[in-house]
Amino acid sequence: MPTQPTFRVEQTRHISEFPGPRSRELAARREKVVAKGVASTVPFYAAENDGGILTDIDGNRFIDFGSGIAVTSVGASDPKVVSAVQDQVARFTHTCFMVTPYEGYVELAEKLTELTPGEHEKRSVLFNSGAEAVENAIKIARVATGRTAVVAFDHAYHGRTNLTMALTAKSMPYKHGFGPFASDIYRMPMSYPYREEGAVDGVAAAKRAITMIEKQIGADQTAAIIIEPIQGEGGFIVPAEGFLPTLAAWAQENGVVFIADEVQSGFCRTGQWFAVDHEGVVPDLITMAKGIAGGMPLSAVTGRADLMDAVHPGGLGGTYGGNPVACAGALAAIESMVDYDLNARAQSIEDTVMTALKEVAGEVDIIGDVRGRGAMLAIELVQPGTGESTKEPNPEAAKAIAAACLKEGVIILTCGTFGNVIRLLPPLVIGEELLRDGIDVFTTAIRQVAATSA
At 452, is the secondary structure helix, strand, or coil? Predict the structure, then answer.
């Protein structure tokens, strides 16, 4: 039987005034010193976060359906993570692995070899953020293949550095005004089942992209294909079955490095260790971050040993990459994932949430699609009355639903190329009662907004 998580903070929502006086005071201080380009989803400030509850500095308790954007899967203060981090901080906070190495880095690399798809010989390198992992995966692919062209997809999000902005599809707010961007990046059509014109299955969608790659670039000029197995910021788009395996097979046949960007979808989020596991895809390289370390800043690239070792000594790394405190947090977080059986819990969350969302989708005409896997779930909002004819995006409804939920003490996030998708990313340790309470608030908000939109 899985171990049951324990929590310090009462796992119920409680809302009085928000933003409360302390949050308003802090907002005024922020106005004077924090750059306006850094935006926040909510107007209050965190004090404690435990399990599925976020408590603000004025004592309000919110159900957290965002998890810091899929980061705090084991909760934001998991006892194992806290203990491991405290122990490591007491011993040393930093040496720089490139100067004086330490066991935690090696131990985590061993664990990633064990958890990532495939039985082949692997190597890993650790960094700080998802964007850093993606950028280095591209570097590795280019060195290993001697080619430069990189294929990304419509609706993709890969980060905010110059190269990863080039890979990212959406302009505002991620790319607008920040160019020129890194070159030799090519964008191909994604399998987006809800918005496909006509019946396009996964294999056909992959062949469509492959034809464009062969015509516009040439297989012998393509270093890598990079794709999120479930797209995150683009709208939690789950490609049709067969899309990923067909792309991966073509890449293997043509010496193209297939990179799975699992920054948001990895570490039990979809009910498997990685989203590619659902179709048995074994990527050449896999990028990881977010849920890897229980909230500590850490990322990784793991992949085929021959590819990873193609880079010359000193060509990979960074001062803080694989920080010992973050490695300790990651090892503890992975231990908790196993102890709590969070893959099974993610599947259970999917059962509970999908049942409720499909029920409300059958009642209202502003939900165009319900999709996702595990605890990475979403609804796509469309204009009332558009139905299957136009599927016109409805970002206004997404904003209204999010605002109504927040008012009742539930934090949810929007996303999508058109700003019309609501994504649900609860901590995987959330209790069933709290989960159902949050979903009740969410579905009530959907019904209310749908009624006013009619």
Answer: helix
Using DSSP, state whether 201 is helix, strand or coil. coil
3 state SS of 327: helix
Residues, the chain = 454
- Joined together, the tokens standing for residue 430 give 């959330």
Task: Inform me whether the pLDDT recorded for 387 exceeds 60.
Answer: no
pLDDT cut 70: percent of the chain above it: 99
262 is written with which tokens? 């699992």
Measured distance CA(329)–CA(320) in Å, rounded: 15
For residue 131, what are the contacts with CB-CB under 8 A and spacing of at least 6? Answer: 158, 159, 160, 161, 164
Q: Kindly report the pTM of this predicted structure.
A: 0.97
Rounded distance between C-alpha atoms, residue 105 and residue 202, angstroms: 38
Tell me the HSE value of 206 on the side-chain side, using a 13 A CA sphere.
19
Say whether pLDDT at 241 is over 60: yes
CA torsion through residues 244, 249, 250, 255, sign: positive
Decide: residue 29, CB within 10 A, 0-12 exposed, 13-18 middle, 19+ buried: exposed
Closest CA to 84 of 370, 318, 332: 332
Among 373, 436, 454, 387, smallest CA distance to 63 is for 436
Which residues are within 8 A (CB) of 28 and not within 5 positions of it... i.e. 6 or more apart?
none
